[in-house]
Amino acid sequence: MNIFERLDADIPLNEDERLLLDSVRTLAQDELMPRAEHYDKTGEFPWENVKAINNLGLNAMFIPEQYGGAQLSYTAYLACVREIAKACASTGIIWATNFHAIKPVIDFGSEEQKSRLLPRIAEGGLAALAITEPNAGSDATGMRTRFTPEGDEIVINGGKTFITNGDVADLYVVFGKWSEIDDPKQAISVVVLEKGTPGLSVVRTETKMGHRASSTATISFDNCRVPRANLLCNPGDGLKILFSSLNKSRPSVAAHALGIARGAFEDGVAYINERKQSGKKIIEFQGIQFMLADMATDLALCESWLWRLAKLVDGGGADFGIDASMLKMRATDTAMRITTDVVQLFGGYGYCSDFRVERLMRDAKITQIWEGTNQVHRQLIGRSFLTK
């Protein structure tokens, strides 16, 4: 067994989780991967892939049983993210966004909210997490979306941009500012908006470098009225909810990036074992072996940290924000470097769309940007060592 086969064999999963992961791998190989090139070229939303994922009931794995789910470990979820992203990065982020978006409801929702909303996702619904605005990216306190209470309703005005699943979601978990609180941090609150709410509109969808089949939308709220019952926790609890959500979604983004990186690495290893120059396999050249060693080492270390952090979360750990930043930063930088190096290994062929490494390189780039840019994560990590 090579190092990666051993790492995969050591992922701490129970028997049911391993069986599910085997099913996900089969789905990824037989259905998602063969369609990935088509969806990348056309930019069509991959409804066939979403249907295939729902046929396996994968949304149920992060929804508690009492709300229609069949909840498995966070480790199992991350392993599935990696396998789906390895086959089709666009489909991977569409599915992972369901987890990112609905986790605040799972962790902070009332019994009534969870009973009403979670079964829709467990049954295969799509969710969107609406945080980013044109003038509020890494600094969420700059958001301008406004929540105004009126009796038993909340009126939402404003807009969000770069929202994954923004034009196809059934539920939107929206962050904005409570009109009756002046402090920009204390005002941040969270409401759940349902598809079809009057005043909710899609302004546009983006044409992107990578992840071309996942929809990324700018959405607008024009006097959208939602029941007060759709407010998560209390007015002003949004920042607490946001930090908790990001700490669990950032390892998911890392798993997504590592799926892309693993796919590129395996393609590269297969190619340089077959391709010959000057009568020798490319892999026999020392310079190529040095490149391969650096890629393999970085990838193995990131995957080891991924499973360590997953174990920490499954064990009930709470203080892992810096761990998550370290993983997100290094895994996504590694994915960008590995995909770039594998394109180099393929030479001119790597620059052409005949081989998927060209697509994987484009898909890797955004992982360094979303869920907090890697510059922000470096700042968070460095600041954590400041003596107070």
Sum up the structure in keywords.
11 helices; 15% strand; 388 residues; two-stranded antiparallel ribbon; seven-stranded mixed sheet
- Look at the helices and sheets and give the structural class: alpha+beta
The helicity comes to: 40-55%
- Mean pLDDT across all amino acids: 96
Radius of gyration: 21 Å
Parts with pLDDT < 50 across at least 5 consecutive residues: none
- Shape summary: globular
Order of helices and strands: HHHHHHEEEEEEEHEEHHHH
Helical segment tally?
11
Largest sheet: 7 strands, mixed
**Oligomer class:** single chain
Distance between the terminal alpha carbons, to the nearest Å? 48 Å
Could you describe the 3D structure shown?
The chain is α+β, with helices and mostly antiparallel strands and 388 residues long. 52% of the residues lie in helices and 15% in strands. It is built from eleven helices and nine strands. Strands 1, 2, 3, 4, 5, 6 and 7 form a seven-stranded mixed sheet that branches. The chain has a two-stranded antiparallel ribbon with strand order 8-9. A hairpin with a 2-residue loop joins strand 8 (276-277) and strand 9 (280-281). The N and C termini lie far apart (48 Å). The model has no long low-confidence stretch (mean pLDDT 96).
What's the topology here?
Elements: H1 3-9, H2 15-42, H3 47-55, H4 74-87, H5 89-108, H6 111-122, E1 127-130, E2 146-150, E3 153-164, E4 171-178, E5 188-194, E6 200-205, E7 216-227, H7 238-274, E8 276-277, E9 280-281, H8 286-314, H9 321-346, H10 357-365, H11 374-383
Parallel strand pairs: 1-4, 2-4
Antiparallel strand pairs: 2-3, 3-7, 4-5, 6-7, 8-9
